[in-house]
Amino acid sequence: MKKNYVIGADIGGSHICAAAVDLERYSIVEHSYVSRHVDNQQSKEGILGDWADVFNQVLNSVHGEVKGIACAIPGPFDYAQGLAKYPEGFKFGALHGLKVEDGLKPLLRSNHPISVKFLNDATSFAVGAVRSNPSLKQKNTLCITLGTGLGAGFVKNGLPIMKGSEVPANGCLWNLSFEEGMADDYFSTRGIVKIYTDLGGDEVLGAKELAERFDQDELVKKTFDAFGKRLAGFLVPHLKTFQAKALILGGNISKAYALFGPSMEESFERQKVQLEISISKMMEREAILGCTCVFDEDFQSTIAKDLPRI
């Protein structure tokens, strides 16, 4: 029996990893996994060539029908039209204004034309994390990524929700107002570092360095405690509106969950929010799995029209 595959890819600021996804088993074909570093400041031809090289390696590794390529990719990106909107001079700036599928297709070595579709990286992670966990498939789930910025994905019945009264516009949280700025300013590496320096701590690089000081520095304990409380306060209204029953955390800061999780959970409890909380241990692979939903019939008939346009 012929297998049906979609190639899923997680494209970050400095890397790409991709693999064939067995749609029947919803699993990565292990021998197909390819990863490589990408210079995001190089020419358009260089970036597309690096991505296509990875896709071609994956294509060569599978025997069966490949329905298409799905890319989990960060913004700014017009996901509805597949247009890169990265500012010139910044990461992937050479792709600005390009319909990426048109740039990639001539570089792909395949016996038949391959469609290339795109989905936000945080949304992709959210879908993959939920679909990989049987206990979450019927639960409204909010997934957040805490790292250089704040990513979010609202998932209902295994599909991302990006429009409607249950979720913020485009299912995004990073750009929402919070205290004296945006949520992205607070629930990110720079946000947790600022808490520490505002308390009187010296300059640090990020959450990992803070975590390493946890047992020796009382200010670090106060920092993680404040971060957890503040995160809960921000999330509660959105969890309640979405009627979320589960929360999944990913990103580098989530690795320090043992340090900020207790204060966050205490705040949830005080505000009568009950959730199944879990920490992702395989973010990239969940993004690879999740982005393949763009080839689902359900996605195409219901969610595709809600993809963000810029």
Tags for this model:
310 residues; alpha/beta; 6-stranded mixed sheet; 5-stranded mixed sheet; 15 strands; 35% helix; 22% strand
Structure description:
The chain is α/β, with parallel strands linked by helices and 310 residues long. Helices cover 35% and strands 22% of the residues. Strands 1, 2, 3, 4, 5 and 8 form a six-stranded mixed β-sheet that branches. The protein is globular.
Rounded average pLDDT: 92
Percent helix range: 25-40%
Question: What structural class do you assign from the helix and strand content?
Answer: alpha/beta
- The Rg value, from CA coordinates, equals 20 Å
- What is the number of helical segments per DSSP (H or I, 4+ residues)? 10
**Outline, from the CA principal axes?**
globular
Low-confidence stretches: none
Largest sheet: 6 strands, mixed
Distance between the amino and carboxyl termini:
42 Å
Percentage of β-strand residues? 15-25%
Number of strands: 15
Order of helices and strands: EEEEHEEEHEHEEEEEHHHHEHEHH
